[in-house]
Design brief:
1 helix; mainly alpha
Length: about 110
């Protein structure tokens, strides 16, 4: 076989190999672009998740403050109710005393 015939036989094989190489290179570029997009999307999602977690922690702190405030209000309400009950008892006693005084004043004197 002559060198020209060998070249003629190798030329289509090399051409096919080059075409396959170009195809694989294009596929690798698409895969690389897809991976870059996934990395960027994942980074954005990670930032969003961190933002939400910080917000959740802030809300938990606010809820804890509200619960503590509610407990303080309930304790204050209990004190007010106890004070009101004491005032009512005093007023009842004052009412009885006033009624007794008025009855004594209104009684006709026996003179």
């Amino acid at each position: 076989m002559t060198p020209d015939k060998r070249l003629d036989q190798l030329e289509p094989v090399i051409g096919e190999f080059a075409a396959q190489l170009d195809l694989h290179t294009a596929q690798l570029r698409r895969v690389n672009t897809g991976i870059a997009t996934l990395i960027e999307t994942t980074s954005h999602q990670s930032d969003d998740i961190n933002f939400l977690l910080r917000g959740q922690a802030d809300q938990r702190e606010q809820i804890a403050k509200l619960v503590a405030g509610q407990a303080a209000l309930e304790a204050g309400q209990a004190k007010l109710e106890a004070g009101q009950a004491a005032i009512n008892e005093r007023l009842d006693g004052f009412g009885h005393t006033l009624t007794a005084i008025l009855n004594a004043v209104q009684k006709p004197s026996g003179n």
